[in-house]
Amino acid sequence: MLKPLLYSIVPEETLKAMTDTFYACMQLPIQVIDEHGEFIAESGQMANFCRCFQDYLPSGDSCEKMHISASKKAITLGEPYIFACHAELNHIVFPLISKKTFLGSILVGPFLMDPADSILISDIAKKYHIPTTEALELYDETASIPLATPAKVNHISRLLYYMFANLINDSKEELKQNNQKLFQQSRINESIQRYKEENISTNSYPYEKEKELISKVKLGDVKQANAILNELLGYVLFSEGNSLEIVKARAIELCSLLSRAAIEGGAQTDNILKLNNHFLKNIQLVDTMETLCYKLQEIVESFTESLFNYIPSQNSELIKKAMIYISKHFNEPLTLEDVAMHVHLHPSYFSTMFKQSTGSSFKEYLNMVRIEESKRLLSNTDFSIIDIAIAIGFEDQSYFSKVFKKYTGLTPKQFR
């Protein structure tokens, strides 16, 4: 008999020890299934209910097929998947993959989240044409099926992830990527729906969003940068449809914009040009819309990170933490002491370290961040100059105008 593919990657005894431990703690049946959906190991007895019920499955259908289908769903989700089988019994499946190859799954179940009643059995009997006598036998067998509350099931689902995600080196990263892709696609779809509801014109590309994205990249705000990216992608898909080549063209333009923004923000030119060339080549090789959208997210994150790479390594985490704090609170009356306290350093020591690491004093850097945001507001809103000054943290228009001219060579009015 051929050895299951899974056992060539993970030792059989390791999986058996893990499933035995799970069963001892949770008292829920747990099985290891192979790439064909068949049991290759189990801890805990299969319910008699299942043995009786399997005789009534339609020809061509099987539990194994359902295991494979549920496993593929879990791979797409990037996390454990809770599902009900043919007989409405609950299971949780966690896929085991390596280099995009499905090796098998960990399957927990069957279990019920509510006590079985006659309605459940009646519905199953009607659906699968089970005679009354056998249906009554099935009802008697439900007493042996373990119960787990919905809250407990959610905890068990997370426990499976914690136990088995690191079992195969590249499996966790692959599932994580799938989960992130799914999350990104949902956000893009929300943007598309919003554009439809608001009857947004398909003829005017939202350049203000592009500028806002660049601004967030310069500030090191990855979370907001990704949110704006998804809105931009939503607009492109809304206005152009699912044309991969058109989105690729926009991606190449955006890549160039981000590389210029990174260089302007202080990143080393040689490194950015190499990064830009690497991404441009990768974009050309992408063959699905979902992968292209995810690749753009990776590009945004890489260019944002590049702005911090010039910071000496021994201080990088502290200075990055300080910069991110500044990017989130620049519109408040922020002081050196506030930021020093946030990174748990004495203000004097923090001031020296910040200057050595970034080449700018705390005050100079704070002003640069504020001016960058003011440029966005001046370009994209009708707010008065005094309102913009106050919105970005300056106390009066005169001082704002003086600082703005120092950094741009223009007054706010001239820039607008």
TrEMBL record:
The keyword DNA-binding applies. This is Helix-turn-helix protein. It comes from the Bacteria. Residues 320-416 form the HTH araC/xylS-type domain. It comes from Faecalicatena orotica. It holds the Pfam family PocR. SUPFAM superfamilies: Homeodomain-like. InterPro entries: Homeodomain-like_sf, HTH_AraC, HTH_AraC-typ_CS, PocR_dom, Tscrpt_reg_AraC-type_HTH. Keywords: DNA-binding, Transcription, Transcription regulation. GO terms for molecular function: DNA-binding transcription factor activity; sequence-specific DNA binding.
